[in-house]
Amino acid sequence: MTSEPIETALALLGRQGTYRVLRALLDGPMRFGELQGVTRLLPRTLSLRLKEMDAMGWVVREQFAEVPPRVEYRLTPAAVALEPLLRAVEAWAEEHA
Amino acid sequence: MTSEPIETALALLGRQGTYRVLRALLDGPMRFGELQGVTRLLPRTLSLRLKEMDAMGWVVREQFAEVPPRVEYRLTPAAVALEPLLRAVEAWAEEHA
DNA sequence: CCGTATCCCACGAGATACTG
DNA sequence: CAGTATCTCGTGGGATACGG
């Protein structure tokens, strides 16, 4: 067995907030504060999750040289490709809640 | 937000061994020992996972009055309905490993 | 605004040993 | 055979406070 990449992906998907962040960013890039509001995650948790998703190649951090500072996060193509998977969970939950 | 059932399902899917157990049982019912062999999980971990999957309504434990004792685990229809989801992760991993 | 630093608690999971 | 009992360690995540 040892389907390593699959299990790594599932592990991250199962962590607190990953699903919410993905769902939010599928509608387009967002700033840290916006993500915080829509996902209702503590800054610490959101920060950790974004770092993990970055390390996973799911998210890209883009910093703008402005005042006040502005940072946006957007999904990589690999993360966008997770959408069918999200739809599958949602469809499942709809049926078997 | 608060898509509770979705996140609960994802959380369990992300735990150690859940994917392996699901994949194994999709081929038909199996005994504890067989599951242990094919998933290569410690008895403790496998036991915990099966209990959680049971509580989740994904798995049914069937005990036979035999000597030596025989116990089989099989998936519920709700768990079988997760297969498209598993295929989606596998397809994703295939593309974006 | 965008995070990081701490402190703390709970629990997930490995290893090993033991029982109905 | 099919698990449970312990012990231990590491980490996930909540709350609050602070820094660039």
UniProtKB/TrEMBL annotation, chains A, B:
It holds the Pfam family HxlR. Residues 4-97 form the HTH hxlR-type domain. PROSITE patterns: HTH_HXLR. The keyword Hydrolase does not apply. GO terms for molecular function: DNA binding. Keywords: DNA-binding, Transcription, Transcription regulation. InterPro entries: HTH_HxlR (IPR002577), WH-like_DNA-bd_sf (IPR036388), WH_DNA-bd_sf (IPR036390). This is Transcriptional regulator, HxlR family.
